[in-house]
Automatic annotation (TrEMBL):
Source species: Phenylobacterium koreense
Domain (ChsH2 C-terminal OB-fold): residue spans on this chain: 65-124
Name listed for the protein in its UniProt record: OB-fold protein
Record domain ChsH2 rubredoxin-like zinc ribbon: where: 28-62
Length: 138
């Protein structure tokens, strides 16, 4: 399969490197290995995104890292047309595990996106930082 950056008919764009903190370092280390992690609370059982030490549902400190296949559906999206790099799309993906992830959509023209469309995670390289998760159509 051809990488999306080799195809002029699909959208690509540079994404800045994320800030890596002590709390998020395990996530970014896994991303560098091509793994997508989410957090799950051992007290209430809820999976959550963005990974953080405290569960946003019950405020328990008993959260653990869990590898996710990074698959889900587009919940909503917006096309940013006023950009020096051309139009691009951002939006929310509802992961199969339940959490919603704010993300960029790459590898597809914004006009080809649709709510409910199946997508999967892909890691986009950044300059001087770890790769960031973006979503592409299945």
């Amino acid at each position: 399969m051809t990488d999306v950056q080799d195809r002029p008919d699909v959208m690509t764009r540079d994404i800045p490197a994320p800030a890596v903190t002590i709390e998020s370092k395990p996530f970014w280390d896994a991303a560098a290995e091509g793994k997508f992690l989410i957090k799950r609370c051992n007290d209430c059982g809820q999976a959550h995104w963005y990974p953080r030490a405290l569960c946003p549902f019950c405020f328990s400190e008993k959260t653990v890292w869990e590898e996710s296949p990074g698959e889900g559906v587009i919940y909503t999206y917006s096309v940013m047309r006023r950009s020096p790099s051309g139009p691009y799309a951002i939006g929310y993906v509802t992961l199969n595990e339940g959490p919603a992830v704010l993300t960029n959509f790459l590898g597809v023209a914004p006009e080809a996106l649709s709510i409910g469309q199946k997508v999967k995670v892909k890691f986009q390289p950044t300059t001087n930082g770890p790769p960031v998760p973006v979503f592409v159509p299945v």
